[in-house]
Amino acid sequence: MLNTGKLAGRTAFITGASRGIGKVIALKLAKDGCNVAIAAKTADPHPKLEGTIYTAAKEVEAAGGKCLPLQVDIRNEDQVKDAIEKTVNQFGNLDIVINNASAINLTGTEDTEMKRYDLMHSINTRGTFMVSKYAIPHLKRSNHAHILNLSPPLVMNPIWFRPHVAYTMAKYGMSMCVLGMAHEFKEDKIAVNALWPRTAVWTAAINMLGVIAVHSNIKVCSLIILQSYPGKLSIPPLKCPRERKRANKKKLDPELQEASRERKRPEKITGKVGPSNQRSRW
Description:
Helix content is 38%, strand content 17%. It is of the alpha/beta class.
């Protein structure tokens, strides 16, 4: 049956969509009628990570979309160019690019191996830049052009750098692509934005990192290896958001509390509104 959803006829190119957040986004787009190109490395089953480009493609088609599985290492320029051309040849257009693929290694400076540093920067920053670069000529021809990077707000607070500076640098590189390209291609009507969860999202990749502490009351989620702050940041699962908020307030160390306070927007008294005094947020 023909899918006539709100994205019917549109085409999305998603990196790292064989599993995790990327696959969930692909399934949502498929339900809305979007054609989806899954660009990821895993073509054969991985011993520790579930899912391949082919299993994800089956799920996308079952959800109502058309799918093109593409084995791509986004560090390889020729593979990226070829994958984007195949997507356009298959579906006739390209409207949405989602830079989801990332490498993560949450270690301090002395414990970060240079091969891990190179991996994160070549996938996160360079890969995002390169996929966007080769997609832009096609996006310029779309009347619904979007680039979405899975990357955090550019908050220059040491709390996000101290535990894992190499990883933060690599993710902030993706965010700087958003800031620069949003203005560079504004006249071409290409919308460039970032998406970053308020809380950690448990995926197979995160599961491989071992035990982590998750701070859900700060708008940018922080994944910090417990050894970085031994005994301070472990927050047990709670039943409701209100209980979690109270527990987080008690458990967070002073530096994290200060970072949370800095991100709150100030309130402004506007005087009388109608019959009584009310507060209005900026």
